[in-house]
């Protein structure tokens, strides 16, 4: 009887430990480990890229570091190709994706987002000597270069374009510049940054969306404590002037509106 009771008590204790571990929220785990794990491309300037010294930097990277700072933890970045970032979130390899992720109805069915932290407006980019594409509707029957699962690729498909797969913004632009793709739809701020560094690149903007997409930080569903903590951090960043400082550093203006 004593052996049975001892075994039963051990089982109850073990169940309690397992239950307690499983009940630990993502935010609790982040705070207990002292690390906020963030996924990003590292190849999408000026949002996430490597500077001349090889250091990971960019608008999104700095926002991620500031959020971690306000959670009193360290930001740890995992870099990868865009098409694999969300899969890594599903596999719980990190806590969030911070990589200009547009808030779309399709994504909201499976994931949660922070409050929007930037507005992204799509522009249609072609080669400088291309006079056949002047509007998004002209993409029908043409090729457009994109990361396959990006919202810009879906937009190009809706206009009838065939997608030429790429691994990021720079490759997408290169395919257009060299004539291996007719066009690409991409972020206007990324394009402006690209032209600032490569003013002689043979590409041009021929059209832009009238309304931009709201961009948020992507997290798994069912993590309300983490979502609330990120939203609070974003609010504090904007209130205390940190957001404006980062925005001005990378864009020369406030891009929160």
UniProtKB/TrEMBL annotation:
Native source organism of the sequence: Photorhabdus australis subsp. thailandensis
Cellular component annotations (GO), alphabetically ordered: outer membrane-bounded periplasmic space
CDD domains cross-referenced by the UniProt entry: PBP2_Ngo0372_TcyA (cd13711)
Classification of source organism: Bacteria, Pseudomonadati, Pseudomonadota, Gammaproteobacteria, Enterobacterales
Family under the similarity heading: Belongs to the bacterial solute-binding protein 3 family.
Protein name: Putative amino-acid ABC transporter-binding protein
UniProt KW Signal keyword: yes
Keywords annotated in UniProt: Signal
Every Solute-binding protein family 3/N-terminal domain range: 35-254
Signal peptide: 1-23
InterPro entries hit by this protein: SBP_3_CS, Solute-binding_3/MltF_N
Protein's cellular compartments: Cell envelope
């Amino acid at each position: 009887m004593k052996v049975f009771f001892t075994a039963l008590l051990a089982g109850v204790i073990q169940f309690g430990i397992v239950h307690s571990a499983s009940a630990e929220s993502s935010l609790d785990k982040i705070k207990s480990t002292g690390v906020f794990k963030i996924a990003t491309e590292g190849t999408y300037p000026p949002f996430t890229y490597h500077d001349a010294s090889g250091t990971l930097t960019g608008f999104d990277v700095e926002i991620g570091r500031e959020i971690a700072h306000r959670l009193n933890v360290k930001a740890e970045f995992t870099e990868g190709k865009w098409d694999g970032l969300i899969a890594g979130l599903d596999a719980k390899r990190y806590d969030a994706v911070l990589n200009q992720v547009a808030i779309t109805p399709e994504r909201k069915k499976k994931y949660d987002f922070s409050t929007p932290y930037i507005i992204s407006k799509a522009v249609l980019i072609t080669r400088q000597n291309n006079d056949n594409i002047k509007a998004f509707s002209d993409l029908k029957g043409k090729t457009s270069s994109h990361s396959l699962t990006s919202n810009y690729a879906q937009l190009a498909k809706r206009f009838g374009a065939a997608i030429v797969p790429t691994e990021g913004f720079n490759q997408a632009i290169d395919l257009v510049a060299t004539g291996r793709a007719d066009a690409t739809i991409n972020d206007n701020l990324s394009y402006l940054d690209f032209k600032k560094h490569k003013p002689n690149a043979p590409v041009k903007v021929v059209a832009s969306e009238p309304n931009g997409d709201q961009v948020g930080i992507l997290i798994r569903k069912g993590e309300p404590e983490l979502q609330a903590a990120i939203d609070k951090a974003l609010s504090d960043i904007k209130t205390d002037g940190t957001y404006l400082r980062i925005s001005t550093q990378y864009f020369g203006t406030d891009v929160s509106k």
